[in-house]
Amino acid sequence: MKRIYIICSLAVILGISGGISYFLIRDANTAIPASTTFITQNGETFNFGKEKTTLKLVEFIYTHCPDVCPTTTQKMVELKKDLLQKGVYGKDIEFVTITIDPYRDTPEILQDYKKGFGIGNDNDWVFLTGVKQQIKNNQKELHKITDALQFQYKDPGNGQFIHSTFTYLVDENNKFIAKFPMGKDFNQQDVYDKILDKID
């Protein structure tokens, strides 16, 4: 009887270890496809394959979001101040905010959203969307990056998206480094420490 318990326990441990290993390996090999292209809040083309200069903190939002998205953006504004003080923001790390609602979130709407948080003309924090008239292509491009980072979202039809609640740190080659909770659970110190750890 003891032997059965030992075998069962070993099977459970091996199964859990295998599952953990799978997710660690999957995350370690995750990268944003180089072909992924968006439009910035200024109407300029942004291609991840050409943006291989700095670490990036990637945030997904939609501007009609009532809680998690704006809370995260505000916390990133505070994080930016700490990184500026350290002298690494814009030099070693940039922020990327991508809307999951490119039909409504036009470049103009993203500009207003950006200004609403006092971000202003910050070239090191880019807001990305698609061309309104090309909604199918926009969704295709968006899924390239959300699928790669395991970010899930869905519009139930009322414009209030259901979505994952993570932000992502990627390296200069757009490979996954770490993910952090959004909203009130976004811990600025944890993100700050991880960014500095990767820079050092």
TrEMBL record:
<comment type="similarity">
    <text>Belongs to the SCO1/2 family.</text>
</comment>
<dbReference type="GO" id="GO:0046872">
    <property type="term" value="F:metal ion binding"/>
</dbReference>
<feature type="domain" description="Thioredoxin">
    <location>
        <begin position="26"/>
        <end position="200"/>
    </location>
</feature>
<dbReference type="InterPro" id="IPR003782">
    <property type="entry name" value="SCO1/SenC"/>
</dbReference>
<keyword id="KW-0479">Metal-binding</keyword>
<feature type="binding site">
    <location>
        <position position="163"/>
    </location>
    <ligand>
        <name>Cu cation</name>
    </ligand>
</feature>
<protein>
    <submittedName>
        <fullName>SCO family protein</fullName>
    </submittedName>
</protein>
<feature type="disulfide bond" description="Redox-active">
    <location>
        <begin position="65"/>
        <end position="69"/>
    </location>
</feature>
<keyword id="KW-1015">Disulfide bond</keyword>
<feature type="binding site">
    <location>
        <position position="69"/>
    </location>
    <ligand>
        <name>Cu cation</name>
    </ligand>
</feature>
<keyword id="KW-0186">Copper</keyword>
<dbReference type="InterPro" id="IPR013766">
    <property type="entry name" value="Thioredoxin_domain"/>
</dbReference>
<dbReference type="Pfam" id="PF02630">
    <property type="entry name" value="SCO1-SenC"/>
</dbReference>
<dbReference type="InterPro" id="IPR036249">
    <property type="entry name" value="Thioredoxin-like_sf"/>
</dbReference>
<feature type="binding site">
    <location>
        <position position="65"/>
    </location>
    <ligand>
        <name>Cu cation</name>
    </ligand>
</feature>
